[in-house]
Write a sequence for this structure.
């Protein structure tokens, strides 16, 4: 237990010091802005739905959609940014070999996972404070959603963390990690694939084809942002 | 540290086969062998980085290790790294003895990514000794070090009282530092000896003469205890199980051959070669 706490403490500080948390936070804030009431969003939607007869009605749904977009579509990608190189970087550079003679493998993995979980909690807290202030919804009303999103975020973090532990190349984790939410989205909405319906809880639950297209567009848009942020991380590591 | 019946396979390829040995407390042991015989794999198993396919490694809780070709976390400073690894090794405050002996004081405040390869190697060597573990495993510790730092590291290791295992291709350093050697060949442990015992087991004579004839080579080869006689240019490399130099010189005299230079080596390098050929 002592080793787990030590690893948690130092790895957590390491992410803070190397600016990873700041970058992910900036990325989260940018998406938060773009997905909310920004002119950029309206322009994008207007361009996308130029053929839609009643754009005003659609815009009214934005606040509702935003919650799903940000926390359900975007948040998995955010956890990917946190976890993609958590273990795979240590494996590929060999720096894990300095730790394993001192600690057991599970202690290293648990400590490392906890150090990332705290960032998920922090990002979610800040995002929900922003959401509460912007939508003027009482924080107490947002609490169940907060708990759901935290559990959801930790599940995604676990998936990406495991991928990072199994695959020894950070870029491979990113590639598969980006592919995974898209695959789930496709599976969830693909007609006639009833067995895939459980996946639908992971993606935007919108009713119409137009909005499905919109959510898919947002997903792809987010992938580009994730790829750009990863590029920033990797360039900094050079 | 005791190692019993250690086997390590990667898929169908058996890298280590039935390795067993015991390290004497406080000894400095050189782990020798050609490239690819499993030295690094053995050290990784002893350090807990790899799991053996079969067999056991018996040792205390703490092991210090310098892994080969492993990058230290680049975003940390030396101070942060030593605080982190020191805490994991059960030593919360910085160990001034290591810092002074390896002259690390100037390196520690800097980010690791700003340090040169040799400076990183020094930091990596120092971290293996944090917390004074009873056993320290060093894989190629002299890689990338300049002459000054080689001497620093050699003196530092020589002063340590814990059990140290050193794997290195710089066999002169093994000669100077180690009391015992383990020789691996094709995944098997072929010798576990003290340096003194090993030296008694064979010698290599390098003989430069004015003329090498077939008669000379066959006469030397017929001597009792000779393992091999290899002519190369004007030099004969003779491996033998015992001291046969006086007899060889007598043969040269008998064949009226002038001996220009004689070198009788009992260096670890020669002994390693005599073992594996």
């Amino acid at each position: 237990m002592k080793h787990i706490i030590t690893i948690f403490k130092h790895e957590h500080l390491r992410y803070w010091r190397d600016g990873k948390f700041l970058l992910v936070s900036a990325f989260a804030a940018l998406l938060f802005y773009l997905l909310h009431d920004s002119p950029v969003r309206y322009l994008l939607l207007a361009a996308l739905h130029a053929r839609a007869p009643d754009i005003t009605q659609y815009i009214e749904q934005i606040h509702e959609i935003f919650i799903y977009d940000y926390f359900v579509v975007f948040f998995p990608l955010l956890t990917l940014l946190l976890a993609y190189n958590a273990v795979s970087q240590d494996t590929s550079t060999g720096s894990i070999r300095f730790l394993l003679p001192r600690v057991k493998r599970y202690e290293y993995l648990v400590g490392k996972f906890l150090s990332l979980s705290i960032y998920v909690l922090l990002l979610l807290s800040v995002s929900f404070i922003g959401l509460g202030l912007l939508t003027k919804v009482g924080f107490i009303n947002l609490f169940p959603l907060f708990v759901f999103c935290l559990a959801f975020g930790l599940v995604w973090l676990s998936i990406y963390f495991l991928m990072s532990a199994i695959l020894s190349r950070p870029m491979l984790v990113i590639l598969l990690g980006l592919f995974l939410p898209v695959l789930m989205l496709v599976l969830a909405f693909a007609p006639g694939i009833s067995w895939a319906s459980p996946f639908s809880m992971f993606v935007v639950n919108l009713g119409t084809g137009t909005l499905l297209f919109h959510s898919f567009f947002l997903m792809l848009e987010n992938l580009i942002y994730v790829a750009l942020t990863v590029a920033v991380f990797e360039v900094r590591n050079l | 540290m005791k190692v019993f019946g250690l086997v390590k396979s990667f898929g169908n390829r058996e890298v280590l086969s039935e390795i067993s040995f015991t390290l004497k407390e406080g000894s400095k042991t050189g782990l020798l062998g050609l490239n690819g015989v499993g030295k690094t794999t053995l050290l990784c198993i002893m350090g807990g980085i790899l799991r053996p396919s079969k067999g056991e490694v018996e040792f205390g809780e703490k092991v210090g290790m310098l892994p080969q070709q492993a990058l230290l976390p680049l975003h940390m400073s030396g101070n942060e790294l030593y605080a982190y690894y020191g805490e994991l090794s059960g030593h919360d405050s910085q160990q001034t003895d290591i810092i002074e002996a390896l002259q690390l004081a100037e390196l520690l405040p800097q980010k690791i990514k700003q340090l040169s390869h040799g400076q990183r190697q020094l930091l990596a060597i120092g971290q293996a000794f944090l917390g004074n573990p009873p056993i320290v495993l060093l894989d190629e510790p002299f890689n990338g070090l300049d002459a000054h730092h080689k001497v620093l590291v050699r003196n530092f290791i020589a002063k340590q009282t814990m059990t140290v295992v050193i794997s290195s291709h710089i066999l002169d350093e093994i000669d100077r530092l180690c009391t015992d050697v383990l020789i691996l060949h094709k995944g098997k442990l072929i010798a576990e000896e003290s340096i003194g015992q090993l030296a008694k087991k064979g010698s290599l004579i390098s003989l430069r003469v004015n003329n090498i004839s077939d008669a000379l080579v066959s006469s030397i080869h017929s001597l009792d205890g000779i393992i091999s006689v290899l002519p190369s240019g004007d030099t004969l490399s003779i491996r033998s199980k015992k001291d046969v130099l006086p007899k060889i010189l007598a043969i040269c005299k008998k064949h009226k051959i002038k001996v220009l230079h004689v070198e009788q080596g009992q260096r670890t390098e020669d002994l390693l070669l005599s073992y594996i050929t």
About this structure: Residues 105-135 of chain A form the longest helix (31 residues). Residues 2-237 of chain A form one domain.
